[in-house]
Specification:
Order of helices and strands: HHHEHEEHEEEEHEHEHEHEE
Oligomer: single chain
Radius of gyration: 21 Å
Shape: globular
Number of domains: 1
CATH class: Alpha Beta
CATH architecture: 3-Layer(aba) Sandwich
Distance between the termini: 53 Å
Largest sheet: 5 strands, parallel
Number of helices: 9
CATH topology: Rossmann fold
Helix content: 25-40%
Number of strands: 12
Strand content: 15-25%
Strand order of the largest sheet: 4-3-8-9-10
Length: 255
């Protein structure tokens, strides 16, 4: 049985695309989702940058009676920071259940600090043309700015990852050049602050041809939202695979 779209005006717009969306709809079980995110918390292991040891510095001053060099210590990383950018309006309404399941399963992993933001199709530019609007709430009632939020994590960039969830125009089978160009600009700006970016597309890959998704995937690792797709996305988010366009390279083992 296919999913019922009801009488919601937004979902009614999808009436001509019902079969297109649902006949090969990708379905992930909760257990698969939890297992997929479990791999992401491994990016939390390691050592962060030096942090000031206040008590240690005071102790040195007391011992010597002089203002000496500050004492620093290595702070262990204990949290993976994930920013989820979720397209949840328009054609993505059809995949709201799956999107919610993805985000809720990520929250079950205590070692992952996941912050979710929402948009429709792509984040809109602010009037100053310096940033892009995103929303703190799925209802799109409380907005903030994309780059502003990403920059807040600049001191944790080594364990920061960004996950984008959107059909990228594939649900309606559309190719929108303006959408592609604007998405590429946003991706290029995000890469200045975070090198671990992955995209999950709820539409099966064989539906991407001739749509905006087929062009956008050249600029970001994009995977269908299947068990294997989630596993591949997590590898990117962990930094285990370095991505350049469609080319993926395994990182050299650390010595």
């Amino acid at each position: 049985m296919g999913q019922s779209f009801g009488t919601n005006p937004e979902t009614d717009l999808l009436e001509p695309y019902k079969i297109h969306l649902l006949d090969k709809h990708v379905i992930l079980k909760e257990r698969q989702l939890v297992q997929g995110w479990r791999g992401l918390k491994q990016i939390a292991k390691g050592i962060d940058d030096d942090e000031l040891d206040v008590m240690g510095t005071i102790s040195e001053v007391v011992k010597s009676g002089l203002v000496v060099q500050p004492v620093f210590y290595k702070k262990p990383l204990n949290e993976a920071r994930l920013i989820s950018l979720i397209d949840n309006k328009g054609s993505m309404i059809a995949f709201r259940g799956m999107t919610n399941a993805l985000i809720q399963s990520a929250k079950k992993e205590a070692a992952i600090k996941n912050t979710s933001y929402y948009f429709r199709s792509l984040p809109a530019r602010n009037p100053e043309n310096t940033d892009f609007y995103i929303y703190n709430a799925a209802s799109h009632t409380d907005y903030t700015l994309l780059l502003k939020e990403v920059k807040k994590n600049i001191y944790h960039r080594r364990n920061l990852a960004i996950l984008i969830i959107s059909d990228a125009g594939a649900a309606r089978g559309q190719l929108d050049v303006d959408r592609v160009n604007e998405t590429i600009i946003i991706l290029q700006l995000l890469k200045q602050y975070c090198f671990k970016i992955a995209w999950l597309n709820p539409v099966p890959r064989d539906r991407w041809g001739g749509t905006s998704a087929s062009l956008i995937e050249n600029f970001v690792p994009m995977f269908e939202a299947s068990k294997e797709g989630l596993k591949s996305a997590v590898k990117i988010l962990r930094g285990k695979v370095k991505a350049t366009g469609k080319l993926f390279f395994k990182k050299s083992p650390e010595k």
